[in-house]
Amino acid sequence: MSPDASHxxxxxxxxxAPAPSLPGRVIVRGDEEDLHHALGSDLMVHxxxxxxxxxxxxxxxxxxxTPMPFYRRLMVDPTFRExxxxxxxxxxxxxxxxxxxxxxxxxxxxxSILLDHSDIPxxxxxAIDATAVxxxxxxxxxxxxxxxxxxxxxDRLDFVLLGVGxxxxxxxxxxxxxxxxxxDRLVVINAGETVTxxxxxxxTYKTINAARxxxxxxxxxxxxxxxxxxxxxxxxxxxPIAGVRPTSPDGSAGEMRWYLDRAACPAGx
Length: 269
Ligand code: 6PG
Prior knowledge:
Elements: E1 25-29, H1 32-54, E2 57-61, H2 68-76, E3 88-92, E4 94-96, H3 106-115, H4 135-147, E5 159-162, E6 187-191, E7 199-203, H5 205-209, E8 213-218, H6 224-232, E9 255-261
Parallel strand pairs: 1-9, 2-3, 2-5, 5-8, 8-9
Antiparallel strand pairs: 4-7, 6-7
Helix pairs in contact: 1-2, 2-3
The protein binds 6-phosphogluconic acid.
6-phosphogluconic acid (6PG) binds at residues 62-66, 93-94, 96, 106, 163-165, 170-172.
């Protein structure tokens, strides 16, 4: 054995980078597939528990490109066959202000994957009428009216799945945008300078932060820099995802979880 054999990269296992230090539970998996399995399993257990406890499950999903393969996985992987879709209410975290026939519509993508292939009752499918002038107040009323069936304190979303943009926006809460300072409304119309189309309808911090579980899904090397910025910290004005923190209006704060694949993790944690 040559004295240099121990330095042969081929045989040296890379030490695993530590999980990034983020507020809440951090779940890291080697690749997207394993990560989707972990997220899907956690989501299904939570959904089943909510159905047991409340009779239904309120799920708010993000659009964009990151979660689409995850939604497809939920439909095809037999692991998730017991998902209580019949008892699930499907909400949107945010929507682009385009008609549902536009290919940029979040609902169009999500519905074509989840609604068409699950038994979510049509009355539980809560699209945002994105082009209506009062799209935000209408959605807010729909949320309030639907959640009002729940006992006080439980009238909140059960699971909110968020993504993060390259500029660290989440939902359609963009850096320096008016929605960041909204404290009372559940849903607002907002706009972002770095996204297409810029005009959006979005859940506010108030609605997101009240959720029972807030999960943030981040995958791919393209998002590594954004993750490093979140770890470094900052004010929500610059870093909107930093404004997402479970609150406890009734004394029972929700849980924050980060689901990352290895590629999205910055070196050094
Ligand atoms: C949207 C989203 C948005 C998204 C981020 C990340 O409508 O675009 O709901 O908040 O989660 O922009 O988008 P990607 O997953 O496409 O990177």
